[in-house]
TrEMBL record:
SMART domains: Ami_2, PGRP. Belongs to the N-acetylmuramoyl-L-alanine amidase 2 family. This is Peptidoglycan-recognition protein. It comes from Vanessa tameamea. Residues 35-171 form the N-acetylmuramoyl-L-alanine amidase domain. The keyword Nucleotide-binding does not apply. Residues 24-165 form the Peptidoglycan recognition protein family domain.
Length: 191
């Protein structure tokens, strides 16, 4: 009976998990933003630096609200800031979904680090409170999946945006939390 369970796990559940892992459950930009990314330069993989940010926008808890806010961020960056496309690599909603921005292409999120890092940007303002448990869990799941796929190095560094540039991002509450995450480094001279 145990052998049958093992066979079931290997041939039925493993392919289902692989299908989920293949894209790390990221909502593609074309799906939420209506078009493919204008960013074309791929990052060299595996990437070894993850920068945690917040968007200082409204928070979102539903798919519709998160897509509306993500589109607002994208439109602002393209129409007002004259970016080629959205600058953040990935956006994380309070609904527990992660949205592709620049993705694994060179973005425009942290001057001096764009060509060798990804950003995970939590939608909302996290100076005084934390993102939802669902948002924090999807961030953890994404990082683990990205390592599994070799998009992210096993020994990657994780920092808060404020550690690399003059900003309050990712907010004091979120910065305090990420300092307990695996891979967080205090000394940014290592990165």
């Amino acid at each position: 009976m145990e052998v049958l369970k093992l066979i079931f796990l290997l041939f039925v559940i493993s392919p289902l998990k692989a299908a989920t892992v293949s894209q790390c459950d990221v909502v593609p930009l074309a799906q939420w933003g209506g078009s493919e990314s204008n960013r074309k330069t791929e990052l060299s993989k595996p990437v070894n630096l993850v920068i945690i940010q917040h968007t200082v926008s409204q928070e979102c808890y539903t798919d519709d609200d998160c897509e509306r806010i993500a589109n607002g961020i994208r439109n602002y960056q393209m129409e007002i800031l004259n970016y080629d496309d959205i600058g953040q690599s990935f956006l994380i909603g309070g609904n527990g979904k992660i949205y592709e921005g620049a993705g694994w292409r060179v973005g425009a999120h942290t001057r001096g680090y764009n060509d060798r890092s990804i950003s995970l940007s939590f939608m909302g303002d996290f100076r005084d409170k934390l993102p939802t448990p669902q948002a924090l869990q999807v961030a953890e799941d994404f990082l683990n999946c990205a390592v599994y796929k070799n998009d992210l190095a096993m020994n990657y560094y994780l920092v808060g945006h404020q550690q690399l540039t003059f900003t309050l991002s990712p907010g004091a509450a979120l910065q305090n939390l990420i300092q307990s995450w695996p891979h967080w480094v205090k000394d940014v001279s290592q990165v």
